[in-house]
């Protein structure tokens, strides 16, 4: 294009020298078809019979280029005399696009290339347009670290006159890695610390050294944040450069810093606050006098002070901070404009296609007519999320002209939250069998839950039907009921026969005391139980009567405090449960079984969450004797009984009257609320008596696992546990049939986290 433009200028100069105020007698066109001549002439500001000079010639050339139809334009004189002249306009037309082709693009897909090169069929192809897309392709490769990628565009003629295929050929070359990062101007932070904090890394055994231009710029900002969080408020990057090393095999990044002084926290002052007392604002200041003035902690403090006003309904309050310097000490003065409180006019619910609006509204703790409260808003979001029907709950605040506000809770409902399974089973013992189960957590969109299960095989029948109504008679009282029947007849087998038929129902509700995170429930169960298990040695060791068959009349009471943020995979908060089974309300059984558990979760940053769980249980008597079934005893080991200790066989760590387990976990989401990786450490044991409980006697196991939430199936898990201890062979509480292998053991788990 540069050569063509130069030839045009030369032609213009020659014409200008030979044509000076002469009368134009003719215009000749070359390079265009006869059918296009009239259209081209209409765009040329030259008229036959008029005087022509260098200004008109220059304007004609510019006008023709402006149409973008021509790649080159040249004008020369023809048939000239002393007073007249003709001109010949020679044109080379820009081609039309008849398609795109890409070659050599391995790191960018064809779809991505088409997103970059937005040329449509039939569009004129100018040199400028082609150059623009070549640069964009190079920039896309640059972002991926391919700084030496070469891009060429060749216009391939087609069978249609003046139509071409634009063929972009890419030579990607090797990805350029960061070989060295240099810092200068740093005296307070060592170069080693800066490299550790700088997220763009040099290439070494633990880092690929990939370079991404966009990320590199954001990493510079992050580096400055490290300084500002240590009190270096005036720190800045003087300059930075990215260049090739001596043999052009890698990149060298140089960053020049100006650290400035370190500043420390002084005093906080508040002005013009009339509604909120100064001491209440000072209480939420998280920065301590004499500590480095961290910009991050200052933003947290500013937010906390603002929350005090938002909790009182003053949504429009403004905090304007002013820094007052005393040497290296910074005092902060907040000038406050309080404004008027925001009153809630109405609350709307959006996005609930399946769930009835009242199911969501009854979970809210913020109401029309109230002053707005940030804490009530956050608590309402938490309560709606605890229903576990929604992927997300997004609030919105809309101000009105009269000073009131409208709230909108926009929910995104989970798809297929119900669980359904049906199938055929086969085992050498039970031969062919079938099973069916369905669980509908949001039945009829009314927040009700319906569960049904049927399992039939040779020698085994198992049925259950359950229903839960969270708000019975439109009051915040939960009602649940279920009926069940189990009959296991293991003919020609050493496994115990077992039969149970009965029903259970109960009530529960949220409590206001000791705080409103508590929940209380009571359930009553009555059933007929029959078990062929009879081991006099177990009865003698435990001092209890194991009832083979009889009527079980049992009450279960529980007090639960749950302040976790989300139900399925909580990231913070805890769940504390105290529960007791009273099996002595008539019938043939008489015992008291108590269980205390505590689960705790804390985020560690970068989506990593730590969890800790402990569970303690004991069984005692009601009256002079203890009568219970074998299944009521605590069984420890594996994942399916009371005490979870992975790495050991199910129930292998004893069947006893007391148990205790401790567990810690670390988990990381691959996909939030859907797919998780985790590691765990378990320890636990069981004992004959409460006074024998000793942490030093607990068996330990470690392992790794995954959790996957599947629509219509539920939460699936697979764990691998390694035992760290060898069970003592003469320990009387161990399962006498257990043979310790010391090998890792796999576990398949459903509907339970780590």
What's the short version?
This protein has about 750 residues and is α+β, with helices and mostly antiparallel strands. It has twelve helices and 36 strands.
Structural class: alpha+beta
* Tally of helical runs: 12
The main pleated sheet reads as:
16 strands, antiparallel
| Helix coverage percent | 10-25%
Average the pLDDT over all residues and give the rounded result.
Answer: 87
Contiguous runs where pLDDT drops below 50 for at least 5 residues: 1-19, 425-430
CATH topology of the largest domain: Porin
What is the rounded Rg? 40 Å
Fourth CATH level, the homologous superfamily of the largest domain? membrane protein fhac: a member of the omp85/tpsb transporter family
* Strand order in the largest sheet: 17-18-19-20-21-22-23-25-26-27-28-32-33-34-35-36
Q: How many domains, as an integer?
A: 6
Global shape: elongated
Straight-line distance between termini = 66 Å
CATH architecture of the largest domain: Beta Barrel
Q: What fraction of residues sit in β-strands?
A: 35-45%
**How many strand units?**
36
CATH class group of the largest domain: Mainly Beta
Kindly describe this structure.
- The protein is of the alpha+beta class and 754 residues long.
- Helices cover 18% and strands 44% of the residues.
- The protein has 6 domains: 2-93, Roll (Ubiquitin-like (UB roll)); 96-171, Roll (Ubiquitin-like (UB roll)), CATH 3.10.20; 177-258, Ubiquitin-like (UB roll) (Roll); 264-337, Ubiquitin-like (UB roll) (Roll); 344-413, Ubiquitin-like (UB roll) (Roll); 419-750, Porin (Beta Barrel), CATH 2.40.160.
- The two termini are 66 Å apart.
């Amino acid at each position: 294009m540069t050569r063509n433009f130069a030839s045009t200028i030369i032609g213009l100069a020659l014409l200008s020298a030979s044509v000076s105020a002469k009368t134009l007698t003719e215009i000749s066109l070359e390079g265009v078809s006869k059918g296009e001549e009239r259209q081209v002439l209409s765009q040329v500001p030259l008229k036959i019979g008029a005087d022509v000079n260098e200004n008109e010639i220059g304007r004609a050339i510019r006008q023709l280029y402006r149409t973008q139809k021509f790649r080159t334009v040249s004008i020369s004189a023809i048939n000239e005399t002393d007073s007249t002249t003709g001109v010949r306009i020679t044109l080379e037309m820009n081609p039309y696009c008849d398609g795109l082709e890409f070659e050599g693009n391995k790191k960018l897909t064809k779809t991505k290339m088409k997103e970059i090169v937005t040329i449509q069929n039939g569009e004129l192809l100018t040199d400028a347009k082609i150059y623009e897309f070549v640069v964009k392709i190079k920039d896309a490769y640059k972002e991926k670290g391919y700084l030496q990628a070469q891009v060429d565009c060749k216009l391939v003629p087609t069978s249609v006159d003046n139509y071409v295929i634009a063929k972009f050929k890419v030579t990607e070359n090797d990805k350029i890695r960061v070989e060295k990062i240099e810092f200068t101007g740093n005296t307070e932070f060592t170069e080693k610390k800066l490299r550790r904090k700088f997220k763009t890394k040099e290439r070494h055994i633990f880092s690929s050294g990939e370079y991404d231009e966009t990320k590199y710029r954001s990493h510079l900002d992050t580096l400055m944040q490290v300084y500002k969080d240590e009190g270096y408020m005036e720190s800045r990057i003087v300059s930075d450069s990215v260049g090739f090393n001596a043999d052009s095999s890698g990149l060298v990044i140089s960053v020049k810093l100006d650290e400035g002084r370190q500043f420390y926290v002084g005093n906080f002052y508040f002005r013009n606050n009339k509604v909120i007392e100064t001491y209440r604002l000072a209480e939420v200041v998280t920065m301590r006098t004499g500590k480095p003035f961290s910009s991050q902690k200052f933003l947290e403090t500013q937010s906390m002070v603002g929350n005090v006003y938002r909790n009182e309904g003053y949504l429009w309050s403004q905090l304007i901070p002013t820094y007052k310097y005393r040497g290296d000490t910074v005092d902060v003065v907040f000038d406050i404009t309080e404004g008027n409180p925001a009153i809630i006019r109405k609350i709307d619910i959006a996005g609930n296609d399946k769930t009835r609006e009242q199911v969501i509204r009854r979970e809210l703790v913020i109401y029309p007519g109230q002053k707005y409260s940030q804490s009530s808003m956050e608590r309402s979001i938490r309560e709606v999320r605890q229903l576990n029907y929604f992927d997300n709950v997004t609030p919105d605040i809309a101000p009105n002209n009269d000073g009131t506000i409208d709230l909108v809770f926009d929910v995104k409902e989970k798809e297929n939250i119900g669980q359904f399974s049906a199938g055929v089973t086969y085992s050498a013992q039970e031969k062919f069998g079938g099973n069916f189960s369905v669980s509908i957590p949001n039945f009829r969109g009314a927040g009700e839950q319906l569960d049904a299960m049927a399992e039939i095989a040779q020698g085994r029948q198992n049925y259950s039907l359950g229903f839960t109504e969270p708000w019975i008679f439109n009051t915040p009282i939960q009602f649940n009921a279920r009926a069940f029947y189990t009959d296991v007849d293991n003919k020609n087998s050493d496994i115990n026969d077992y039969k149970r038929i009965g029903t259970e129902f109960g009530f529960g509700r949220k409590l206001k005391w000791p705080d409103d995170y508590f929940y209380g429930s009571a359930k009553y169960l009555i059933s007929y139980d029959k078990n062929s298990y009879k081991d006099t040695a177990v009865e003698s060791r435990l001092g209890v009567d194991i009832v083979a068959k009889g009527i079980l009349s049992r009450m279960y009471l529980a007090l639960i405090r749950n302040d976790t943020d989300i139900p399925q995979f909580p990231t913070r908060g805890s769940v504390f449960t105290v529960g007791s089974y009273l099996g002595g309300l008539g019938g043939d059984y008489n015992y008291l079984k108590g269980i205390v558990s505590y689960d705790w979760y804390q985020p560690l940053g970068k989506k990593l969450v730590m969890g800790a769980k402990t569970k303690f249980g004991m069984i005692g008597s009601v009256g002079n004797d203890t009568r219970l079934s074998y299944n009521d005893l605590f069984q420890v080991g594996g994942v399916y009984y009371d005490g979870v200790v992975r790495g050991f066989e199910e129930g292998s760590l004893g069947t006893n009257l007391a148990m205790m387990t401790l567990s810690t976990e670390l988990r990381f989401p691959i996909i939030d609320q859907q797919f998780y990786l985790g590691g765990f450490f378990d320890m636990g044991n069981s004992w004959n008596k409460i006074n024998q409980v000793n942490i030093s006697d607990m068996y330990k196991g470690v392992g790794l696992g995954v959790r996957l939430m599947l629509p219509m199936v539920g939460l699936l898990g697979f764990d691998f546990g390694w035992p760290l201890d060898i069970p003592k062979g003469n320990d009387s509480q161990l399962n006498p049939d257990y043979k310790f292998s010391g090998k890792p053991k796999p576990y398949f788990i459903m509907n339970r986290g780590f």
